[in-house]
Design brief:
167 residues; alpha+beta; 8-stranded antiparallel β-sheet; 4 helices
Length: 167
């Protein structure tokens, strides 16, 4: 079913998957992704990260307010609570606010490189997004893909390594 033909409720729910391959060992990639407060220094679309709750010693239960810009003329902000942490393989957060959903980082070593998969299962929170989703779903996907590719490129620069792939 095309996005234009989807009922509004279905079109307002997205599962977006991004795959990155970085020429860096898994521990370095993990540490950079876990240090959410540092994202604005290397991820161009992350405008700010504010810690609301540090969580436990491993970061479980931590809550951060993240403000994003985008390739389109709008930004979003939401709180993310860490609900799963399996160092250095899997980190999952639950988002509430302008967007509602679950984001999961999965890291897999590949020799001395690391493959990263980010899965974002999101319900559009703002009224204008829900109303326009049946028509604009391809644009929302294009926007997300660009934001994520910029993140992959920024992370590679931050780590001083090559980005082998980002899609």
């Amino acid at each position: 079913m095309s996005a234009a033909a989807m009922p509004a409720a279905e079109a307002a729910q997205f599962q977006l998957v991004s795959d990155w391959h970085l020429d860096a060992p898994i521990e370095r990639v993990w540490d950079a992704l876990k240090a959410t407060e540092e994202w604005p220094s290397w991820w161009p679309y992350v405008k700010s990260v504010q810690e609301l709750d540090p969580g436990d010693a491993d970061g479980m239960g931590a809550v951060r307010h993240i403000a994003w810009s985008s390739r389109l003329p709008y930004g979003v902000a939401f709180d993310v609570k860490v609900v799963q942490m399996q160092r250095p393989r899997r980190m999952q957060g639950r988002a509430t606010g302008q967007l509602q959903g679950t984001g999961t980082w999965e890291l897999v070593p590949d020799g001395q490189t690391t493959r990263v998969r980010y899965t974002w299962c999101v319900d559009l929170g703002s009224r204008w997004m829900r109303l326009t989703a049946p028509l604009l779903a391809p644009v929302f996907r294009w926007n997300h893909n660009g934001v994520m590719k910029a993140g992959a490129q920024g992370l590679a620069r931050q780590l001083g390594v090559r980005l082998l792939d980002a899609r």
